[in-house]
Amino acid sequence: MLKTQTPSRPDALTWVFLGLGLLLLPLGLYLALAAPPDVNQGYLVRIMYLHVPTAWVGYLAFFVTFLYSLLYLFRQDPRHDRVALASAEIGLVFMGLALVTGMLWARPTWGVYWTWEPRLTTTAILFAVYLGYFLLRGAIEDPELRRKAAAAVGVLGFLNVPISYMSVKWWRSLHQTQSIDLTTGRIHMDPAMLQALLFNLLVFTLLYLGFTRFRAMVAALEEAKEEA
Amino acid sequence: MRRVWLLALRDLRLEVRDRAGVLSVLAFFGVMLFVMALALGPEEAPLRRAAPGVLWVALAFMSTLLATRAFALEVEENTLDDLLLTPGGKEWVYLGKLLFQLLLLLPLSALALLLSAGLFYLPLARAPALLLTLALGVLGYASVATFYAGLLARLRGREVLLPLLLFSLVVPVVLASVRATVGLAEGLPLEEVAPWWQLLLVFDLVYITASALLFPLVLEG
Asked: Which family is this protein grouped under (chain A) (predicted)?
């Protein structure tokens, strides 16, 4: 779904993803604002409708980077590398958004913007890993070595994602545990809130797909220019 | 298997003959501990509290310094390509370099443990458990460090890039090692320290397997 040919403008599927995502974004926002407030957190809970989807897109994007990095290492097809690059970039942006929204939520709830508890620490590390990914890309001039080195970071760096995801359970920390637990399939949430959250997750995933396809196309154009 | 040993022993012999590298790393470690001890004050309590953290941060810096040496000679003498020309799989190059790093790092880190025990009141009563933590932590660290050193071997500016890439990836290892060391220093029962060892072991296995598998793909075309 993410692989693009080398066209000079975005294809129909990219526009569909982007258009649908942008159209549904206000609706998701409305649902988030219309959802009932939380028993304990009150209206503050609304940050969750942004925080969880952005974090989800971050994890998803890094997973896609991992997958396409592996593919690149085995197949040596530059197209795979471009998708990995695009996905890592989008993932970094969304992970940054997740960190920011998390901080905005933490200030009124915990009293501080940042605290060194496991979930926050592992997420910050994850952020640093993918920052390193781009620094590495920028530092290597030989395109083939750059792709390979970046792919290696994309694969090894992903090992931190499950750790980051599970850290809330392993260390029983300050951070909320998952409301939708992917490991056991249990859901701890009111149906009205769940609906809004799931809708927002869908919207952000659509946006992610659109952005990544778009970025991969731009990367292809860049590469064509570099070679010319 | 024989190749792994041969490569490791050859590198070790070169490194020991050279001496300058190992000695400068050890001196660096000593200076770092002195500065930390000065900064954290002469009282015993803060030093004792800081000991595990200081030990692992210093160890991390030390192994980064050593990691650049894993492939430095090969690149200087243009022998890396010769190594890669040998028939068969290329995993053994990684494993040999890793073994070399371990043979170098383990005695050094045992020395480092003694140094920090002397300067920071780190209790050595449970030396076997501490040594196990040390071995697991150093193994995890060296596995990633060796991989990246190989990856960046031919690159200019690798000395700057290596720590940057490395530190972000090995933070889980350092985290788990520090927690285990803190537990041991505070005298927690072994059952409470064991989960950290398990975590370290999982890291080590995953990193070594992944690195050994990726290494040939990354080094050749």
From this structure: Belongs to the CcmC/CycZ/HelC family.
Whether A68 shows a pLDDT value over 80: the answer reads: yes
Q: Is A187 helix (H, G, I), strand (E, B) or coil?
A: strand
Q: Does A135 touch chain B (CB under 8 A)?
A: yes
Determine whether B125 is exposed, middle or buried from the number of CB atoms within 10 Å of its CB (0-12, 13-18, 19+).
exposed
pLDDT value of residue A197:
87
In the predicted structure, residue A165 carries a pLDDT above the cut 60: yes
Could you tell me if residue A48 is inside a domain?
yes
B155–A155: do the CB atoms touch at under 8 Å? Answer: no
Residue A4 lies in a domain: no
Question: Which domain does B119 fall in, by range?
Answer: 2-219
What is the spatial distance between Cα A177 and Cα A137, in angstroms, rounded to a whole number? 35
Residue A105's closest CA among A175, A3, A205?
A175
CB contact under 8 A, B171 and A74: no
- Do the chains contact at A160 and B164, CB–CB below 8 Å? no
CATH of the domain at A212: 1.20.120
pLDDT tens per residue, range A184-203: 656 667 777 888 888 899 99
Residue A211 lies in a domain: yes
- CB-defined contacts A:B, below 8 A: 62
Shortest alpha-carbon distance between residue A62 and chain B (Å)? 14
Asked if the Cβ–Cβ distance from B175 to A74 is below 8 Å, we say no
